[in-house]
Amino acid sequence: MSATPEHETAIHVFRKVDFKITTEDVLRAMKIRKVAPSLERTTATLVERAMEVARPKALCRVCYVEDRTEDSVTIEDQEFTSRVLRQNLDGIQRVFPFVATCGIELEQLTVDRTDLMTAYCLDTIMMLAVQAARRHVQHFLQDTYSVGQLSRMAPGSLQDWPLQEQGLLFDLLGDVQQQIGVQLTERFLMIPIKSVSGIFFPTEIRFESCQLCSRPNCPGRRAPYDAALSARYGV
Ligand code: SF4
């Protein structure tokens, strides 16, 4: 059996993700129709402070699918139970588990969190930071491993894949807390709260978990619900 090349077993850690945003970026992401001058001032001040401390981070690695059943897939000794993941990885050997975070520095920024607009504004900046970190991983993987389109799934994003399997995912990625400061709680939630995890996999047709999720009025929806597709996946 041939050995896996060393660069394919390494965990890639990114502690200096490029992150630059403007007041306009944040106001746009907040989706407020009429922006009062006071909100614009609050946002500008927060953006300036956030830019001084923000350190979005991420890590990822290459893994290989070792086994499959009808509703599970084993990746380097970790058996993930998800009918949808199993079908998405049909014919795929190489996958890319990852965690990305806005970083503890932003989460610990001292602001008046009792002021709803200030809290919402900071929350939005943190969301933009974690998105930058996740995009950084995606572009790194596409450039480094010459993969085309990537889709991703995360434990807990659908009922089909239990949140508890976040623990298995973290086990694939070494000491995530020590590397990028993301802690997994006993209830399998991540701290900082604006962190994302999952498995990137190559796809010809873009897949979003939202296509299989009928939750109404979800502010995070990335694709419309597709009942026919859900039926095809059997969920
Ligand atoms: S619609 Fe909302 S809850 Fe459903 S998978 Fe998408 S982001 Fe998650």
List the SSEs and their pairings.
Elements: E1 11-14, H1 23-30, H2 37-53, E2 57-61, E3 63-68, E4 72-75, E5 78-81, H3 83-88, E6 94-101, H4 104-107, H5 116-144, E7 150-153, H6 166-171, H7 176-180, E8 183-184, E9 190-191, E10 195-202, H8 227-233
Antiparallel strand pairs: 1-2, 2-6, 3-4, 3-6, 4-5, 6-10, 7-10, 8-9
Bound molecules: iron/sulfur cluster.
Task: Write a structural description.
With 235 residues, the chain is α+β, with helices and mostly antiparallel strands. It has a single domain, classed as 3-Layer(aba) Sandwich (NADH Oxidase), CATH 3.40.109. It is 35% helix and 20% strand. The strands form two sheets. Strands 1, 2, 3, 4, 5, 6, 7 and 10 form an eight-stranded antiparallel sheet that branches. Strands 8-9 form a two-stranded antiparallel ribbon. A hairpin with a 5-residue loop joins strand 8 and strand 9. Helix 2 crosses helix 5. The protein is globular and about 55 Å long. The mean pLDDT is 94. Bound molecules: iron/sulfur cluster.
Q: What is this structure, in a nutshell?
A:
35% of the residues lie in helices and 20% in strands. It is built from eight helices and ten strands. Iron/sulfur cluster binds next to loops.
